[in-house]
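Its record is quoted verbatim for completeness.
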Amino acid sequence: MIRSPENTSLNVDPKPARVRLDEIIRHPDSRKIDESRLPELTTSIREYGLVIPPALSEHEGRYICIDGNHRIVALRSLRTKEVLAMVWPEGMSREQILLLSMHANHIRQDETPDATLMRVEALARYHNCKVGEAAGMAKISASKLSKIKRAQELLVPDALRLCRQEKVGLAIRYAVGMATSDGDKQVELLRQSVAGEITRKQIESINREEEEPKLTLTFKLGDVEHRLNVPAEAGYELLMDALAELKRNIVTHAKRDTPLDLLSRLIASESTKTCKDSRQVSNA
């Protein structure tokens, strides 16, 4: 049963408080610490102080870190004993903490696609609901979630590993996945993107169509053979659209009492015109 927004919202505001670092623990579904970020962050805190306080939630005498795990690790490396933080009182549920954490990272655009998907899936488990519903609760759009999942499906394991190592953003991941299904080419495009040698628009201009497998349906109307070619990656929706268009044409000619011996050639002509207009389905 999915909780209503009223049940998952927070009715209290956080208050500033000084908290000992040894009393702060990580949320079990927080993203992994990125060690490569720590040296620069530690230097910044040492020279300028902590600009943005971490966000914490009281929990059984300790504090769960909602936002600021990297800052906490950096402060510990500087042997800091306590930190000024924004603290929510005891009583927040595990999914409320997760939602706040996701929201903070989403606003800063500081979360990788992998981390976003992992935490949306965790939220779905808490609520025993679909991932899409959990994404809506976390204010992550359906289109973004769809792109994240699609990019993961399109990219080969080596390409995904490179994306995680180099923190490649969703737009580039998706563009590379749509550009080619060849694993070596995917890795090469990602390396070029990381090195600044190629832009997203250039990646998007690469024609994947020639190497994409197609689903071909062949049938005959009289002496005319029809083939509906649908990109395999498009799925059932596009296929159903193509078949629905064919059915509409047949129904139209039935109402006109078109002679059956002319039907097949008329349908072939109209299907070809439709496909040229839509650029989605081709007849041959």
In short: The two ends are 50 Å apart (CA to CA). Confidence is low (pLDDT under 50) at residues 1-9, 271-284. The chain has 13 helices and seven strands.
